[in-house]
Amino acid sequence: MAAWASRSSDMRGVGHEMEHETRRISAICGAAALLLGACGGNDSALAPEGPGAERIAGITWVMFVVATVITAGVLALLVVALFRRRARRDGDAEPDDTDRRTERWVIAGGVVLPVVVLVPVAALAVAVLDDAPASELRIEVVAHQYWWEYRYPDLGVVTANELHIPAGETVTLEMRSDDVVHSLWVPALGGKTDLVPGRTTTMTLEADDPGTFQGRCAEYCGLQHAKMLFLVVAQGEDDFADWVDAQGRDAVSDPSASAGADLFAEAGCASCHTVRGTEADGPVGPDLTHIASRRTLGAGVLDNDPDGLRRWIGETWEVKDGITMPPVPLTDEEVDAIASYLETLE
Ligand code: CUA
User: Fold this and answer.
1) If you take atom 1 of ligand 1, which residue's CA is the nearest one?
2) Residue 161 — φ and ψ, nearest 5°?
3) Are 141 and 175 in contact (CB under 8 A)?
4) CB 227 within 8 A of CB 320
């Protein structure tokens, strides 16, 4: 084959590869968009739906405008300087005069301008920090590699990966970590706060209206950091009261799922997970007393539907490699029985 022909066929190979790669990347992006879409909920700090996020968005826009004006000013000065220099080469300016003018520019640009810009911005930031409202509901948050535990000590509720709050009310999150540093972030509702081992940090959260909001871990915490998602479900007063009432109850045992319940104990699930009202009182993994009421599994990784549940039990590490829950060897029938049992835990 002629050299050019072989080269062109090589190029075609490269072209193909690039095309393939582009297609692969857009498939991944599409899948990611679908995954995030499936998780549901507003995920944008620039579409605030609570007072905390509104304050942050306000500061963001002020800083954006200030930065834009300063950038435009610097560019304008640069253009002026370029032309002035050319002009000076032709004419002959008085050196003393130029020195004095330079000095004025240095003082104005290096001292006066930063003070005028930074002092109000700093004052605004302090005012916003001081503005934290008093809270009516206290929720304990424990971060684990890689899921979120929520405890409502005054209401007798323990749940995971789905934080329910009353809309229009401020709640206080008392947060700790079980292992490494994590960070809780609900972009549409507020800022980030770290959860640090051996320490309790607090933050307040409020949603203006009922709705579902995407939350995530915002501090790299290990292999599955990106799959440490959660939902915030803000509910009206009555809906929230109903939710608290249902979540506070023990699990109701359904005789049709007794085979799965037995297997749940025998396969070792019960030594890590708690199902209140049964023998299962494991303290390691998420409380499963009302697992069927939650929208996602594995901290936002799968939809909580029959398929998702069977995948999560049967292919745990294919879905989320390296987590504390070990892959338990189960037959399809056993996976099905355990899933059927968990589906009764509403
Ligand atoms: Cu937890 Cu990142």
Assistant:
1) 182
2) 60, 5
3) yes
4) yes
- Residue-wise pLDDT for 237-286, tens only, equals 999 999 999 999 999 888 899 999 999 999 999 999 999 999 999 999 99
Distance in Å, CA 306 to ligand 1 centroid? 27
Question: Closest by alpha carbon to 269, among 325, 334, 341?
Answer: 325
Contact between 201 and 184 (Cβ < 8 Å): no
Give the ligand 1 atom nearest the CA of 146: 1
Q: Is the CB of 184 under 6 A from ligand 1?
A: no
Q: Which long-range contacts (CB under 8 A, 24 or more apart) does 317-322 make?
A: 320/146, 320/224, 320/227, 321/223, 321/224, 322/222, 322/223, 322/224
Ligand 1 centre from 271 Cα, in Å? 25
Q: Tell me: pLDDT of 1 over 50.
A: no
Query: Which atom of ligand 1 approaches the CA of 221 most closely?
Result: 2
Torsion of CA 5, 7, 8, 10, to 10 degrees: 120
Q: Please check the confidence at residue 95 and state whether its pLDDT lies above 90.
A: no
Q: What is the pLDDT of residues 20-36, one digit of tens each?
A: 554 554 454 444 444 44
Q: What gap in Å lies between CA 50 and CA 188, rounded to an integer?
A: 7
Rounded-to-integer distance, Cα 280 and Cα 287, Å: 10
Cα angle 20-26-31, degrees, rounded to a multiple of 5: 125
